[in-house]
Specification:
By secondary structure, the chain is α+β, with helices and mostly antiparallel strands. The protein has two domains: 176 residues, P-loop containing nucleotide triphosphate hydrolases (Rossmann fold, 3-Layer(aba) Sandwich), CATH 3.40.50; 185 residues, RecF/RecN/SMC, N-terminal domain (Glutathione S-transferase Yfyf (Class Pi), Chain A, domain 2). The protein is built from 14 helices and 17 strands. It is globular.
Length: 387
């Protein structure tokens, strides 16, 4: 759990130094900086913002860098500095580390933002990331397979973009890469399937609480991205001509998806499945998105264990921090019943919460679950503690 948070030059937050608690309520008007505080925590955990991909857009005007530093209750210290040219510096306990995954593994952070419809209405990437984020944290061997797969895929796609006719040497390269992709894809699918099977019951329980009238109508399925009854290298070999024409690899683990289905009854015997996003109202979609993300937390609790973190070429064992949950303006997006379900679930888990709101109307509900919460008010980038 974060016990101290320092933010420098992130949007309108020029200098912030906070002592935090298990539950932290940030109150402020739109544009005051409350969402920027959540953005800073997300940046430290994930190495990127949830609002933009360009550091120059969140680095404070006329500054060259933004920095986020956190001290946890076990005295672990994490820091990230982003420069306008996207150069990144990462530190774990004062030591420079090379990869963001080392901070991410220690600091599992989940953003619950019901207003964002990307996970339902856009391509498969955001839904796949939901599953892969969970696999990263609960299946220690998943990330190495995923990373190796991505590297081979990048090489393959680079070659496919360069030419439409392969030399004999290039064909040999493609064949070697395809064999590697197939080996990694098999394990990636294995871990994803395990995580999905463990996650699905928690998702259905969340649906029972948030959308009780649709319990028997909403379901989820996992699509691996390729026909798992065949080896991926054989599939890629058969599709190579079309891949060359398109200039990219069209099937594989990188095309996996999570489908959220809506089941309609035509009559007592016939049932038709549609995508839930095509049927639900905007308000119902917000509840569905909340259910998808909220249902991941019990799995993190269940599988919480020590992680091997490589710091300056030395592998050390650290127990990961409790999950950190970022709730952005949920009082404006969800009704009181949904907020109660959300807070009841969070209150029963070992996690740290940062919640933003326009007003203090949320406080009576918060007091039912956290007695030691901290209240902060944000005005024009200045954050003041109020209790």
């Amino acid at each position: 759990m974060i016990k101290r948070l320092q933010i420098t030059n992130l949007r309108n937050l020029s200098q912030v130094n906070l002592s935090t608690s298990c539950c932290n309520i940030i109150i402020g008007n739109n544009g005051s900086g409350k969402t920027s505080l959540l953005e800073s925590i997300f940046l430290l955990s994930r190495g990127k913002s949830f609002r933009t991909h360009q550091p120059s857009r969140y680095i404070r005007h006329q500054n060259n860098f933004a920095t986020v530093f956190a001290v946890f209750d076990d005295e672990i210290r994490l820091a990230i500095q982003k420069q306008t040219d996207a150069t990144t510096q990462l530190r774990f306990n004062g030591d420079t580390v090379k990869t963001q995954s080392q901070l991410t593994r220690y600091m599992p952070t989940l953003l619950i933002d019901p207003s964002s419809m990307d996970v339902l209405e856009q391509g498969s990437a955001s839904r796949r990331q939901l599953l892969d984020w969970l696999a990263f944290h609960v299946k220690p061997n998943f990330y190495a397979q995923w990373l190796s797969y991505q590297r081979l895929l990048k090489q393959r796609n680079s070659l496919l973009k360069q030419t439409r006719i392969l030399t004999d040497l290039q064909k040999q390269q493609i064949a070697a890469w395809d064999a590697g992709l197939a080996a990694h894809a098999e394990l990636i699918h294995y871990y994803r399937q395990q995580v999905f099977d463990e996650w699905q019951p928690y998702f259905l329980k969340s649906i029972e609480k948030l959308l009780p009238h649709y319990t028997k109508k909403i379901s989820v399925s996992y699509q691996p991205g390729f026909d798992i009854t065949q080896s991926l290298d054989k599939i890629l070999e058969e599709r190579l001509l079309q891949d060359l024409q398109q200039g990219y690899t069209r099937v594989g683990s990188h095309r996996a998806d999570i489908h959220v289905h809506w089941q309609s009854d035509i009559d007592n015997k016939n049932k038709v499945k549609d995508q839930a996003a095509n049927v639900l109202s905007r308000g119902e979609k917000k509840l569905l998105i909340t259910a998808l993300r909220l249902s991941q937390l019990p799995l993190l609790q269940k599988d919480k264990s020590k992680s091997n973190i490589d710091v300056s070429h030395e592998t050390l064992d650290y127990e990961s921090s409790v999950p950190i949950v970022l709730l952005d303006d949920v009082t404006a997006e969800l009704d009181e019943k949904a907020i109660q379900v959300l807070l009841t679930t969070l209150g029963g888990l070992d996690c740290q919460v940062f919640l933003t709101s326009l007003t203090e109307d949320i406080l009576p509900l918060v007091k039912n679950y956290w007695q030691d919460y901290k209240l902060f008010h944000v005005k024009q980038g200045v954050i003041e503690k109020n209790n």
